[in-house]
Amino acid sequence: MKQYSLGEFEELVLLMVAALHDEAYGVAILENLEKELSKSLNISAVHVALKRMENKGFVKSRFGGITEDRGGRRKKFYVITALGKKMLDEQHELRTTIYKRIPMRSILREISFGR
Question: Is 93 within the bounds of a domain?
Fold first, then answer.
């Protein structure tokens, strides 16, 4: 089986897909990420990340119904796959393991020297 990686932006998009569950589509993902990150993002970057992750098997997509408010276009909804959830779990475990290695005494000493 091919070993895939997950970039930082892809990880954030994948986390938001999982959080939004059945309501995850491009604009909803974008708006929620912008709110969480307090910065503007590009919708094209979100779509590229979704396409890459779909090719890797981290998400699956389906089209919603045609609506007049979208000019007859359909929303493309995304859901996380078992592989995508496994990748998020692995990323979380890795980050947590490294974070726990930070020596707290050193940090506290640095803070006290800064005063």
Answer: yes
Report the C-alpha gap between 52 and 42 in whole angstroms: 16
Q: Which domain holds residue 54?
A: 8-113
Of residues 73, 26, 92, the one with CA closest to residue 53:
26
Instruction: Assess if residue 1 is contained within a domain.
Output: no
Q: Tell me the pTM.
A: 0.84
- pLDDT tens, residue by residue, 80-115: 999 999 999 999 999 999 999 988 777 677 666 655
The CATH number linked to 64 is: 1.10.10.10
Average pLDDT on 63-75 reads 78
